[in-house]
Amino acid sequence: MTPPHTLTEAAWVLCLLSIVVMPCAAAGLALVNTGLGRSRNAAHSMLSALCVLGVAALAYCVIGFSLQGYPGREFHAMLVGGKPWDWIASDPFFLRGVSFDASPAPLAVLFGMFAAGLSASIPLGSGADRWRLGAACSSAALLAGLVYPLFAHWVWGGGWLAQLGANYGLGRGFLDPGGSSAIQAVGGLAALSIAWILGPRRGKYNDDHMPVAIPGHNAVLVLFGCMLAWVGWIGLNCAGAAIFASMAGRAPLIVVNTTLAAVCASLAAAGITRARFGKPDASLCANGWVAGLVASSATCGFVRPALAMLIGLVAGALVVFSVEWLEFRLKVDDPGGAVSVHALGGIWGILAAGLFASAADSGPGQSLAQFVGIATLLGFVLPLLYALNWLLDRVYPQRVPPQGERQGLDLHELGAGAYPEFMSHNDDLWQR
Questions:
Q1: Residue 427 pLDDT > 50, yes or no?
Q2: What is the pLDDT of residue 3?
Q3: 245-274, pLDDT tens digit by residue?
């Protein structure tokens, strides 16, 4: 068994306080997704975020942690080349094997409950304006109860990705203390699956198959959501680094790197959009900000501030071009930019950890270990997410009917709008 990490009393308290602010990240994403959607779906978007967080927390506590586990706890392994290949944990369901004391394991449970909810809320951005509430909750249960904990075990629970260093000499094994892969990339790939299955919004593409701009209805919500997400990400990165990488003493560096990555990513998006369009684009700047936070999670405790700035700059630039490429080339309608921000931003963060981690924190072959993790995400996690959501769609159709999309999800599924004193329908109501 992999020996568990130990935490001093001060580090334990720091972790608990950091975890307590993690829900701010989910609240920030909820505001971003709501603001980037249509006004007639605003209440539905916020309620979906709240319900998805609740369902994900339940699924994780019932079954998720039993699959994720924690280093030092029971697991199932197979021998490959004479070495153990740890592929899944074997804790009892309903957290029956967890002693809620001052050890790190209960902190891992609390962290995982919030992290699974955050990951499950990411697809709400790609499914905005057309995803049924019940379907979103069902999809969240699958992600939080099965896919997220399985990959999280491989990364944080002593699984085979973490063992790449000890068993195969690839650096220190797969590095990702804050969850650029397990939380962000998994959620972003789920968002891509949902966007494919749901198809584009009505009126998004014209008769020539060219995308039509559908601006978000409230930029203030979007930008405030970015600020709220920043607070939650600081807690996320500090807690993850302390629990899974024994880096509680690097908390100041983690906060600095997280902030610098977000700032530089947003400035990169602002500079590129100003150069291309004559003025900065608020929605892309917001997406850049969150992409910087996403990329910082894998590298927050391993790099110096100057490199964190570079990582943020690249993340912001990638988002601007990825949003356009997905929309124009692949015909992926992603209102919240979830695929570009979380899937691509997360993958970039994973790669950056291999390229830029200090010699003390990595070793020969570290980049290859990171590539193995990326290949696992694209070659296993993405097909699994698509298959699960495709099967769900066969049993319980995930997209609202056309009349529901025309009417707005607030009225169609909730019976009341978010802005009853204002007209929330406009000309796109009559588009095909």
A1: no
A2: 47
A3: 999 999 999 999 999 999 999 999 999 999
CA distances for 83 relative to 155, 260, 376, angstroms: 18, 41, 19
- Which residues fall within 8 angstroms of residue 225, CB to CB, at 6 or more apart? 27, 28, 29, 30, 31, 32, 34, 35, 286
* CB contact at 8 A, 256 and 306: no
Amino acid at 216: G
pLDDT at 79 > cutoff 90:
no
Radius of gyration of the chain (CA): 21
Contact 314, 14 (CB under 8 A): no
Report the candidate in 390, 281, 283 with the shortest Cα–Cα distance to residue 335.
283
pLDDT at 4 over 80: no
54 vs 138, 147, 232, 282, CA distance in Å?
12, 17, 17, 30
Q: What whole-number distance in Å separates Cα of residue 121 and Cα of residue 63? A: 18
Tokens of 371: 């590539």
Domain ranges of the chain: 9-82+95-424
**How would DSSP label each residue in 112-143?**
HHHHHHHHHHTHHHHTTTTB-HHHHHHHHHHI
- 3-class DSSP state for residue 79? strand
Of 286, 290, 330, give the one whose Cα is nearest residue 192.
Answer: 330
- For residue 75, the cross-strand partners are 89
Burial of 9 (0-12, 13-18, 19+ CB in 10 A): exposed
For the domain with range 9-82+95-424, which CATH number is right: 1.10.3430.10, 1.10.260.40, 2.60.40.1930, 1.10.274.10?
1.10.3430.10
CA-nearest of 57, 136, 147 to 338 is 136
Cβ atoms of 28 and 230 within 8 Å: the answer is yes
- Note if the pTM is more than 0.85: yes
Distances (CA, A) of 365 to 10, 174, 297, 361: 34, 10, 21, 12
Q: What is the pLDDT of residue 361?
A: 87
